[in-house]
C-alpha cells in the first residue's frame, strides 16, 4: 500500500447525432418501440402531437445511444435500450435511470453515475452522455 488515495474514476463520454427522419419508419413498428423505449416513455410520447412526438422519440433514441457508448456497448449488444430510462428531472432536463441489463453493464464498466444532455436544431438532434 502506497498511502496515496485511489485514482479518481475515469470519465467516459458518449455522443450521438441523428436526423429526425432516421427513425420515422422504425417508430411505426411495435417491436422497435417496445425494444427501445421504456413503458413510461411510450406513454409520454402517446400524449404528444405528431411533430413533438417525433422530436421526443428521436431525442430519447440519441440519448440512449450516447449512454450505450458510455457503457462500452452498442445497440443489440446485450443492453436493452428500454433499460435506459430518461425521465424529466426538475426543471425539465432529462435524467438517466439504469435498470436490469443497463444497470448490470454499468456495474461491469465501473460506472456509478451518468448524466445526459440533449439538443435539437432544425431536423437534427444530438445527445452527449458523461459517466463516471
Can you tell me about this structure?
Helix content is 36%, strand content 21%. It is of the alpha+beta class. The strands form two sheets. Strands 1-5-4 form a three-stranded antiparallel sheet, with helices on one face. It has a two-stranded antiparallel sheet with strand order 2-3. A hairpin with a 2-residue loop joins strand 4 (114-121) and strand 5 (124-131). 30% of the residues are buried. Keywords: Magnesium, Metal-binding, Transferase. Residues 13-109 form the 4'-phosphopantetheinyl transferase domain. Its EC number is 2.7.8.7. This is Holo-[acyl-carrier protein] synthase.
Widest beta sheet: strand line-up: 1-5-4
Label the structural class. alpha+beta
* Count of alpha and pi helical runs: 4
Helix content: 25-40%
Cα radius of gyration in angstroms: 16 Å
Q: Could you give the distance between the termini?
A: 24 Å
| H/E element order | EHHHEEHEE
Shape assignment:
elongated
Report low-confidence residues grouped into runs of 5 or more: none
The largest sheet is: 3 strands, antiparallel
Amount of beta strand? 15-25%
Number of strands: 5
Mean pLDDT: 94
Amino acid at each position: 500500500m502506497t498511502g496515496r488515495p485511489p485514482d479518481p474514476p475515469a470519465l467516459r463520454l458518449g455522443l450521438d447525432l441523428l436526423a429526425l427522419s432516421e427513425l420515422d419508419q422504425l417508430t411505426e413498428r411495435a417491436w422497435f418501440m417496445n425494444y427501445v423505449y421504456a413503458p413510461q416513455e411510450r406513454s409520454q410520447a402517446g400524449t404528444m402531437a405528431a411533430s413533438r412526438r417525433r422530436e421526443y422519440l428521436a431525442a430519447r433514441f440519441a440519448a440512449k445511444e450516447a449512454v450505450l457508448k458510455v457503457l462500452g456497448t452498442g445497440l443489440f449488444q446485450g443492453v436493452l435500450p428500454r433499460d435506459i430510462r430518461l425521465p424529466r428531472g426538475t426543471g425539465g432536463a432529462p435524467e438517466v435511470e439504469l435498470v436490469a441489463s443497463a444497470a448490470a453493464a454499468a456495474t461491469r464498466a465501473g460506472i456509478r453515475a451518468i448524466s445526459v444532455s440533449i439538443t435539437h436544431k432544425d431536423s437534427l438532434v444530438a445527445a452527449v452522455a458523461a459517466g463516471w
